[in-house]
Amino acid sequence: MLYMFLVSGVEDGKQPPAELFEEIEKLSEQEIAAGRMKARGGLLPTAMGSARIESRSGKLKLTDGPFAETKEVLGGFSIFEFATREEAIAAAESFMDIHRRIWPEWEGVCEMRPMFGFGTS
């Protein structure tokens, strides 16, 4: 089963410690080598060119970022393939534990969602 992990947190302008990126890179390399990680990516701050296109009442509305009313923003994603939901949960917990250990003041969420349609027939 494919799973997407969506990581979000408060966008407060504080930079993550370099060690956090190093540890995430190590974990990513292990997951890629094991064949579980299929894709990943981080997102730049919303002040660096974000926009929203909304559909409401049959009309589209464009809003340029940053979005002051937003408390948490999506910071990155990864796509994995796991045999069981339990394996996916364990991987998400492992990823979030890196944040807890290295950047304990950060508060965020890793949402794990089953997927369809990515690289499947």
TrEMBL record:
Gene3D superfamilies linked to this entry: Dimeric alpha+beta barrel
InterPro entries on file: Dimeric_a/b-barrel, YCII
Pfam families associated with the record: YCII
Coiled-coil residues: none
Domain of life: Bacteria
Chain ranges of the YCII-related domain: 1-93
Protein family: Belongs to the YciI family.
Descriptive protein name: YCII-related domain-containing protein
